[in-house]
Please model this.
Amino acid sequence: MRSLLFLSLVCVMTAPQAYARAIPNPAQRHAPGNEEAQKPIADAGYSVGVNYQLQCAGCHLGNGMGSPANDTPRMTGFVGNFLKVPGGREFLVRVPGMSQSALNNAQLADLLNWLMRKDGMAGKSLPDDYQPYSAEEVTQLRAKTMLNLPGTRAELIRAMRAQGIAIEDGMNN
Ligand code: HEC
Model:
């Protein structure tokens, strides 16, 4: 009797998981009129803004304000400051959200140049002598893994402070 009770308990507990694994249904068909196979985003030819929405906005939010609760710094009005300190230009390509995104190197370069505009997310933080990223530069930087991200970022923030730059990244550091 006791083992029967135990067995039924196990069944009740595992049933939702079995359901969860069955979704999405691998045998599901395309909706009629939408039979074309999905394209990887690197081949899809979306605009830069759409690439940002699909690959970045989930964490950084649509307006680049980020979320301290999720350790995601604010880019709006701040991200350009990284270009004012040694190592910052490389850092911006090597953060995992960039280097490990599904975008190709040319798309990443376009995306960075889109962020780095006076009328874009960098805004007032953009240095006047900004040199756009090229696909070649991104290719090189992206391949080098950043081993100590928090340490590297803290170092860059320290170098900004030393220049008198206000640290308005929303992270209270
Ligand atoms: C899964 C969440 C997530 C996604 C997706 C993501 N990021 Fe990030 N991003 C972060 C976090 C967290 C940081 C802070 C450094 C770190 O821990 O990686 C960061 C840091 C950055 C930085 C450096 C700025 C700073 O203050 O450290 C840039 C630039 C950046 N992200 C751009 C992007 C772009 C562009 C995309 C889309 C291609 C993207 N990120 C996708 C979470 C994300």
Summary: The pocket of heme C is lined by residues 55-56, 58-60, 71-73, 75, 79, 92, 95-98, 101, 103, 111, 149, 153, 169 (CB under 6 Å). The mean pLDDT is 90. DSSP finds nine helices and no strands in the chain. The domain at 46-162 is CATH 1.10.760.10 (Cytochrome Bc1 Complex; Chain D, domain 2).
